[in-house]
Amino acid sequence: MKTISVEALKAKMDAGEKINLVDVREPHEHEAYNIGGILLPFGKVQGLETDDIDHLKNETVYVYCRSGNRSGQACLMLEPYGFKDIINVSGGMLAWQEKFPG
Q1: From the candidates 4, 22, 65, 93, which is the catalytic residue?
Q2: Which single residue of 45, 57, 67, 101 could bond 74 by disulfide (Cβ 3.0 to 4.6 Å)?
Q3: What 8-state DSSP symbol labels residue 80?
Q4: pTM: predicted TM-score of the whole model, two decimal places
């Protein structure tokens, strides 16, 4: 599984690159703090209810959660279903908020 650090991801975002973000946290976590990802809770990934992101199968997709654990599992589940370039955001939103407070 490919991974990216929060610093490298933020650098890509700051450079204006087209970034496809998928947030696999729960809705209340997404509402409390997010970086613009499509909300697809982990339970939906487990159930392969991926309609909301199926249009991204041939693109690079960065998957994040709170700590990087659920997103890592989600990456492993999505890869066999045709997602060509899935990348886990190491450390998730905990690392993001630690590196980029405020």
Answers
A1: 65
A2: 45
A3: G
A4: 0.97
